[in-house]
């Protein structure tokens, strides 16, 4: 971990610095003030249980409302936030805001929803992670089982023994663990078996082409079978078509997320959309 921490930020000042690095410095300056100027937002994408079950909750996804550049997605700044160390305070804000929002939904009667928050590898390696998570839960009086932390497979695989320890501490809090972008890392079955996880999210890359007989279709049904064996909930991400949804339901996948059923939405729209779906389902 020390190696990673030591690298933070210094990338920008290496001799290989080029025009792109100047560009990055500009972004870094903007990123430094973004938190205090309250430029971050969370949008929420629903997770639905299959075959046509109810909403299980939502994944919180970070957006940056930049004063000149407009709405910026996480792929454009998370890397920089990680390299500069800013992901630590930004990630703490995300956790706090997501817990606040979930508590509000809980008081509105959506007590069985879970809120999922993405953790970066840098947060995951931070020795203060547990305090930050516990603090957010306590501040908003959120029961730990209402929170899920999503960690990518590659993060969970990095330094496996240390990861297992951290995951176990999270699980001991009563918070659920989801392994994100599953299939893109290199988990061994032995390691997977030891993981104190509740959920695997099949990476979008495997969901794109689920026509009969494709390799991806075979991989996805194998992951679903694995989930059944290891007692893990399987969620498919990036579901955009009816056909994909039908395939996933037919192989017994537990849940899905994707543009077909719900895009990431601002909290008001999220609640309104969920209420309308509930009404039309009743
Ligand atoms: P992820 O956690 O795997 O999230 C799924 C991404 O796929 C989201 O992109 C979501 O908007 C997008 N998506 C959902 N359904 C569909 C679909 O049907 N089709 C397509 N093409 N895309 C879909 P987003 O919001 O841009 O986030 C990208 C990544 O950034 C996330 O991947 C996650 O790794 C990271 N991220 C987002 N929010 C946070 C955060 O608060 N903290 C950290 N550390 N990382 C975050
Ligand atoms: Mg995620
Ligand atoms: Mg994912
Ligand atoms: Mg992804």
From TrEMBL:
- Asked whether the UniProt record includes Transmembrane among its keywords, one would answer yes
Span within the parent record: 414 to 695 of 695
The source organism is: Herbaspirillum frisingense
The protein's name is Diguanylate cyclase (GGDEF)-like protein
Stretches assigned to the EAL domain: 24-278
Keywords attached to this entry: Membrane, Transmembrane, Transmembrane helix
- Keyword Transmembrane helix recorded: yes
């Amino acid at each position: 971990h020390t190696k990673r921490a030591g690298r933070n930020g210094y990338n920008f000042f290496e001799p290989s610095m080029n025009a792109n690095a100047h560009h990055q410095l500009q972004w870094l300056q903007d990123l430094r003030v973004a938190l205090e100027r309250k430029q971050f937002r969370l949008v929420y994408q629903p997770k639905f249980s299959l075959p046509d079950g109810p909403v299980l909750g939502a994944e919180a996804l970070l957006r940056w409302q930049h004063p000149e550049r407009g709405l910026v997605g996480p792929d454009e700044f998370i890397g920089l936030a990680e390299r500069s160390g800013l992901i630590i305070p930004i990630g703490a804000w995300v956790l706090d805001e997501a817990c606040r929002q979930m508590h509000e939904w809980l008081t509105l009667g959506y007590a069985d929803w879970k809120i999922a928050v993405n953790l970066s590898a840098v947060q995951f390696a931070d020795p203060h992670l547990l305090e930050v998570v516990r603090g957010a839960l306590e501040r908003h009086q959120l029961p730990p089982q209402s929170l899920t932390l999503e960690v990518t497979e590659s993060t969970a695989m990095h330094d496996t023994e240390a990861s297992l320890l951290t995951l176990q501490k999270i699980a001991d809090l009563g918070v659920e663990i989801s392994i994100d972008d599953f299939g893109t890392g290199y988990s061994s079955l032995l390691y997977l078996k030891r993981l104190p996880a509740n959920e695997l999210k099949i990476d979008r890359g495997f969901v794109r082409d689920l026509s009969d007989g494709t390799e991806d279709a075979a991989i996805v049904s194998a992951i679903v079978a694995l989930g059944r064996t290891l007692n893990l909930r399987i969620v498919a991400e990036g579901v955009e078509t009816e056909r994909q949804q039908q395939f996933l339901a037919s192989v017994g996948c537990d849940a899905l997320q994707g543009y077909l059923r719900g895009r990431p939405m601002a909290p008001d729209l999220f609640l309104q959309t969920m209420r309308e779906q509930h009404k039309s389902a009743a």
